[in-house]
Design goal:
With 313 residues, the chain is mostly helical. The protein is built from 13 helices and no strands. 70% of the residues lie in helices and 0% in strands. It has a domain of 196 residues: MetI-like (MetI-like fold), CATH 1.10.3720.10.
């Protein structure tokens, strides 16, 4: 019996090979990171939920707060928590819940602005200093050493004394006080990466330095930059509260958690302890959330640690 030449002969072995070599569907690296965060770092995932909650409150504070944060309610001065005022009132009869909710907006604005500017400065200085080296690196690092020799509080108070009060000036002061140490971390990562084979290969085929920095160096130092920025947010919120506590932060009547502690919270500690407890809890929750999330991201993104994963481009 003759076989039909148009019939397609199927090799079972070839089918099995094709099934084996078909690559599985891969998620984006952010999805993998979230999955690993939930599975292996529950405390970091809880910190991430606190961060998301703080962002949600900051964005929707006008809709969540029952009253205007600067609205005075007659003679209800230092009123204890009640059905009308869930967290009580301050010395000017203003609703504490509304002021704390709007204070999240102030803290997040200052924190994100300061960390964004600080991360930009530290990334540019660290990458350029580590990649080019030589005299350029020496000059930049001596400037960084000079800045790091001063306590961060002294730098912030000096900048605020020169520029004066204001939210933008607070952001500048916090950024200038925090970029130096982060630039050292970025520089050390660049020093290890610039001797890699793929960087040498890019140089050998004539790639420009700008191309190497953007396409090869920057993506491979993204992990420590993300971790530094996340940890820096918690420290920045605490630093902004410290400045406001000392009277150099965001000027009134803007609701600031640190100013709530230094004003009514300190003056009415015995008569109205809620004036210090609730702003303190808000600061603690924000700092705790960002620190736990930053620690978890450091453990997941650092390939030197057990279970560390790399960012896929």
């Amino acid at each position: 019996m003759e076989s039909n030449p148009q019939e397609k002969i199927i090799d079972p072995l070839a089918v099995r090979v094709e099934e084996v070599i078909v690559p599985p569907k891969r998620h984006h690296w952010t999805v993998d990171l979230l999955i690993q965060l939930v599975k292996t770092k529950p405390l970091g995932a809880f910190g991430g939920l606190l961060v998301l909650g703080m962002v949600f409150v900051a964005v929707f504070a006008p809709y969540l707060s029952p009253y205007d944060p600067n609205m005075m309610h007659g003679e209800k001065v230092v009123a204890p928590p009640s059905v009308e005022f869930w967290l009580g009132t301050d010395a000017l009869a203003r609703d504490m819940l509304s002021r704390i909710l709007h204070g999240a907006r102030v803290s997040m604005t200052v924190g994100l602005g300061a960390v964004g500017l600080s991360t930009l400065l530290s990334t540019v200085i660290g990458i350029l200093s580590g990649y080019y080296g030589g005299l350029f690196d020496t000059i930049l690092q001596r400037i960084v050493d000079a800045i790091m020799s001063f306590p961060w509080l002294v730098i912030m108070l000096t900048v605020m004394a020169i520029l004066g009060p204001g939210q933008l000036n607070v952001i500048l002061a916090l950024a200038l006080a925090g970029f130096a140490g982060a630039s050292r971390v970025v520089r050390s990562a660049v020093l290890a990466i610039k001797e890699s084979d793929y960087v040498m290969a890019a140089k050998s085929i004539g790639c420009k330095n700008s191309t190497i920095l953007i396409r090869h160096i920057l993506p491979n130092v993204a992990a420590p930059i993300i971790v530094l920025a996340t940890l820096g947010l918690g420290n920045t919120i605490l630093a902004e509260a410290s400045l406001s506590f000392l009277g150099f932060g965001v000027p009134p009547p803007a609701p600031s958690w640190g100013r709530m502690l230094s004003g009514d919270g300190m003056n009415y500690m015995l008569k109205g302890p809620w004036l210090a407890v609730f702003p303190g809890l808000a600061i603690s929750a924000g700092v705790f959330g960002f620190n736990m999330l930053g620690d978890a991201l450091r453990d997941l993104l650092d390939p030197k640690l057990t279970g560390g994963m790399r960012l896929r481009r």
